[in-house]
């Protein structure tokens, strides 16, 4: 009918780890009820599509109007600067300020392409019950990585857990360790200088832990390249004493571990470089290729508004990527006591993330670095190469890929 | 019976196709009169080759263009020409026998792994699907059921296949449970390069064997029954019937199986990737995984390098297949 | 069964002793059931497990759930355990709560009786329970029928086109001698070398230029001409007796008629193989649709169901249940088509 | 060399009954020929004997041993298939050598046997060709060769000579006879060729629709067919059958054939006056007798084969009559011909077709 | 109905030359039979005519039109294949109807034609079976049926009756003759059967190793074979060939045959004394003459076919001699038999095998 002719249909590509797709669908429905002239279709896809085919689609002009993306830096060249269309760009600057940089193309300090649907913070989960069973005391706040490793190994030996310490096989998690060991990542000229002293300390730790059995080769040693490998299943089955992962695990652990044992999130362990965790997350970004930037901005304005966003975070059990909400603290009415406690720990460590960690996350070629690191360290851990060799190749990989990217 | 109803349903479904094919007859007859019966071959080939042209040959061409350009732009026209740089980069090796001496060692490890994988996989695939086809061709009770049993894995998507086996093979999976009840030690299959390769081969054979079995089964059915009767009159022992009658007459189908298994084997990617992730280290990293990751998974979608690698792969496979045909032709009936 | 029956013959006499190869064959088949079908069966069973049970080590064969009992005086149902008491007796107790290593338990029959049990001294009481919500929830949430329709449309149309044009090409290559035949055969074989994964981007560019993105035809057309099919059919057609084709020519059949009235029916077993192959491949195809279909209304089942795979988590319970659902139609089709493979009508019209 | 016994052998394909209880005993070294109309079950019977088809019921014994359920490969028989069933991927030599290799013979022995059989069948020049490069007759010879290189207990031949030319057929037939004489092997042979049946057979088995009609030596069947079917089937051209009525007259019997009465020297027993019978007379037993002819018929068709002539003539009220004359007859279409039946060679069949005993 | 002309038709398969320049003209409505030893190229020649094989060189004309390169489907001929080549997936009815459908006939017409052909070939009961459920003879009849339902310009038959039983063969042969008489279609027919060749043919073409040896009416070939090959090939059992030497003696010519001299009434021209020739005499032209016998031979083998008997006898220094007797001869193996040749029917061939004109 004629009414339909006036309706603008926008498309939002979305992936889900948990229930956030449902929550977003709810919110969008609500938006449509209030704004009959805009309809948003939520195209739910596997994460693979976001990471691998969305860039191609965007490059060929076939992309959606908005998408929830992880590689914000990589896609920043397609991002829409919504400033002209937003009701109050200031609100965005205030509340999303540090994260907006992650979405901006290099050199751009002003544009507003989207907001964070979720801030992820890396951090360790501990199986408290195992500690109790082993009768080993949990290291306290500000303990070092080495302390934790020792304690976890003790516990594991007592209770026969095969995984004393588990780190997700992921560049992000490794960098949580590396930053705490004092890596600087960037050289004086601002270009990446990945393999520095801090980095080597962290790499050596991981390498040694695998040698001494603190870490099992099953995570780092059993897949190749940039493949992600987590230890959620093992943690759920009480085989992991300490598990360095991140905030996104909370809702799942709440569901799958249930009453089987007590688990807690603890603050990040420390090293020479401090106790920072690595930030990360996914942002909802608008794209230049849209035919309806105005309408897109209206939708984004709605979704980014404080009450809506608060509802979104709290229903999906996400650490807020909104400074105002983070400061206020969020209620998670659907969360179990353990989950709520863990969320609190993570929200707190979010506030203490070091600038270097932010810089890595915001660097538009960050994935090049992270991928090279994880791929090469993985080879070293599995015994395929030496650490020295890995260092050389990391440097070479990063240089080569950046050069390729800069070819015009 | 339900199958009867199904069969009827199938016939009904095929009917319009039959009508359509019949309607095509007058124009085709006219065509035949215009160009002669022999040249009708071109008419028969045309549709397929139009599709090939559009969706295979043209893309291969684009791929070649990709392989001599660099950068991250998608449209070939926007990509800077780099000549043979991509190839030079790929082939920058201290020694081709030692992948770790290469600049792009992952590519060479992928090549080596794939070669190893293909040798084992094709051998196992051909032997097992042959045995299975022979057994399933016997007149046995419940033949249809057994055929389905052997075929079902083919219906599963690679992700699901890999997943099932990952569950079975993990530290506390079914297999280790079985081993420990038998008094053995748990084996970490995905940490040991040898085991990882073994299971990669195993799972890929498991998943695709049904398809090849089916091809051979169809081939077995095409062998005239009276030849077996003649062989039986000649008091031929079973193994000789197999070696001297069945296998030679099945040879054309065996060629299909060997060629397809080889090519598909060399192209293996997703199920091995989901199963082992290419590890441990890079022990089961396949060339196609390398190519795919280079083009898609890395942040820099390096289409140029990926295209160069794929051109190399394609050429190698093509040469291999031609060699096979040359060898096979001599044996053909 | 004797030799000839082993090799596809039609006799099966009563009262014959089994040859050792028969026994070997049955052993092999039994092994097949375990090895080939066991995992599939396990997949089906697993699809009825709860998210938590799915991740459990060591995995159980059947979907179990812990028994919960209502105990008077307790607001919620309590999980039931089999607990070993300090005096050595084993009793079924309901757990009220767990604190650290100690569980506080009651006898469900007599709630006044309370026990403190170390957590490693108790075992959950479980029974088989099907987590049907794995099916019902996504089915409700999904535009399931829409996706099903898309998948069926793609599969059926693509398979028909594939069968038609591939068999035409195979016929052309198998029956005729013509200039360029070698080249055409080589082209087919050469095409075989190229996995879609490798030329994904170029094909994507072509499809985009043709304006096909987000149309089901973008999924159907690029794979319609499969070298596998041409190759398979051609090899099969080469075994047909030449006399049959000549007889048809004498009968004034046009080349087209020879193709569809004589050769096609006789190639039925190979066509069935190709049909199964095409159906299964189209039905399960994932990577390519993912690239060219971005709108929900054109999603195929595979895209939709893989949406349960996130960056860091995968909702296996849904994924498995939906996998089983998508498996059913192809399984049925296979059961139907496999009969044609075994019709074996090769050359029985000959002397 | 072996005996063969079939008792009550039945065979059905699904609902189609092809053999209805065959009882047959073949003596050691005997040459038995199966004849019968197309589709009567000859090949099926042969296949049952071979073990390629299982009987639906009944028993098969070879050399006193029950082989009903023994597979073909263990019965030790050799067979020439109607469809030849040559191994298409093997050369002629390999085709013939195959069974010998199975028997574990030495290469030199195999070579020698194959060469001998090939020479006999004039296949020496084709030994290295594949079957598809052979003519129909050549293929058939290979099939025969494949059977005779072996030394089977029983030879089974399914129309082995049907595609050979006359000369080769006679030669091969004589070779088979010689082979039989020499080896003394039991042979069972299906043919459509009268000459083959009559000359090769020790005994002929006449089949009709899955039942045995008569078993006997060739001349027994020719001279004393036990029913009209056998009488018509044995002898070429086939016997003339004329409807007749018994006229009881004086001491002798007279039969009314068409317009004429035929006197029978002595009457078959048990014939009442007025009974309808069939008179059978072979073409070679009808003479052209301008003076003493019993009937006058008009010539419909004359077939001159050179050495003999067949004349097809019709008389009012009678079916067409075939007669045979030596040499190249001078009769032409439309001529009147007076014919007489050699009374000694008359056959009389009752209404059901059974032969009535001639005194 | 059509004429056919072949000029210089050659055919090679790779390096094997199968036809060496065939010149042949078949008149409209003529019935031509090809005979020749197995492998001589009969089927190949038929396929060349059909258009299924392209000649290597030479021309084919049908009705004056050059069709050398016209495909089979456009020549309008019908063929019965030696291998039958029935469509295995079609019922008998469909097999026969296929060509008619291709010709665009109406279903009712098709039905009627098929039914008629089926009735003629006694296939009515099998119309709905698939070929694999038919016996060899039944299949062959279907193949014939498939050709005759059409109304082709020329019929090509490749041994169409070889698998039929005697009765059916005679019946079908007569049907074919009737069909030919009725339709007047040009027919080309390959056979091994003497009777078929002699009775059906207007003209017989005798082939040998890809060359035409003689073309003529059946009796021409029988009575006046132009060479020893044709003489031996036509007539069954084959002609006896005896080596002889010309003895010039008084006014007549005498030939030394074995130990005896045979006087020739009038000598063939151009025979010098001492020349080696071959004497040909057919078995039916040798009489047993206890008193006037020219030779005495010993009986080796007696074949009694019922209506006639073949005696194989040998005399010292001569090849085995075949003679034919009416009825069931009383001779037995080892008997001495005095024989004489009917001098009128003697054939004389020179050393190269060419027949010498008899005066
Ligand atoms: N495809 C072929 N390749 C090579 N030689 C062939 C081929 N087909 C036939 N021949 C040879 O050509 C010759 C003639 O074959 P053809 O089939 O014409 O013989 P024929 O006279 O029909 O014999 P028959 O009476 O046995 O059927 C034979 O020697 C045969 O071996
Ligand atoms: N597999 C089968 N299924 C059904 N009927 C069959 C099958 N094989 C043969 N028959 C039928 O059985 C009957 C006997 O067949 P068989 O082949 O024994 O005949 P035959 O006497 O050898 O005939 P011919 O002389 O024509 O070769 C025929 O009517 C045939 O149609
Ligand atoms: Mg038969
Ligand atoms: Mg022939």
UniProtKB/TrEMBL annotation, chain B:
Domain named ABC transmembrane type-1: residues: 111-324
Domain of life from the UniProt record: Bacteria
A single GO cellular-component term on record: plasma membrane
A GO biological-process term: transmembrane transport
Record's bilayer topology term: Multi-pass membrane protein
Keywords, alphabetical: Cell membrane, Membrane, Transmembrane, Transmembrane helix, Transport
Primary location class: membrane
Protein's name according to its UniProt entry: Sugar ABC transporter permease
TrEMBL record, chain C:
Range of residues in the leader sequence: none
Lineage: Bacteria, Pseudomonadati, Pseudomonadota, Alphaproteobacteria, Hyphomicrobiales
Record keywords: Cell membrane, Membrane, Transmembrane, Transmembrane helix, Transport
GO cellular component term of the entry, any: plasma membrane
GO process terms (BP): transmembrane transport
Membrane topology recorded in Swiss-Prot or TrEMBL: Multi-pass membrane protein
Transmembrane parts of this sequence: 20-45, 147-171, 183-204, 216-237, 258-281, 316-337
SUPFAM superfamilies in alphabetical order: MetI-like
Entry similarity comment: Belongs to the binding-protein-dependent transport system permease family.
Originating organism: Bradyrhizobium cytisi
Pfam families the record matches: BPD_transp_1
InterPro entries per the UniProt record, alphabetical: MetI-like (IPR000515), MetI-like_sf (IPR035906)
Residue ranges occupied by any ABC transmembrane type-1 domain in the UniProt entry: 148-337
UniProt-recorded name of the protein: Carbohydrate ABC transporter permease
Subcellular localization(s) per the UniProt record: Cell membrane
PANTHER family found in the cross-reference section: ABC TRANSPORTER PERMEASE PROTEIN MG189-RELATED (PTHR43744:SF12), ABC TRANSPORTER PERMEASE PROTEIN MG189-RELATED-RELATED (PTHR43744)
UniProtKB/TrEMBL annotation, chains D, E:
Species this protein is from: Bradyrhizobium cytisi
Keyword ATP-binding: yes
Pfam families named among the record's database cross-references: ABC_tran, TOBE_2
UniProt keywords, alphabetically: ATP-binding, Nucleotide-binding, Transport
Annotated NCBIfam families: PRK11650.1 (NF008653)
Subcellular location: Cell inner membrane
A GO molecular-function descriptor: ATP binding
Main location: membrane
Protein's name according to its UniProt entry: sn-glycerol-3-phosphate ABC transporter ATP-binding protein UgpC
A GO cellular component entry from the record: ATP-binding cassette (ABC) transporter complex, substrate-binding subunit-containing
Domain ABC transporter: 4-234
Gene3D superfamilies: 2.40.50.100, Nucleic acid-binding proteins, P-loop containing nucleotide triphosphate hydrolases
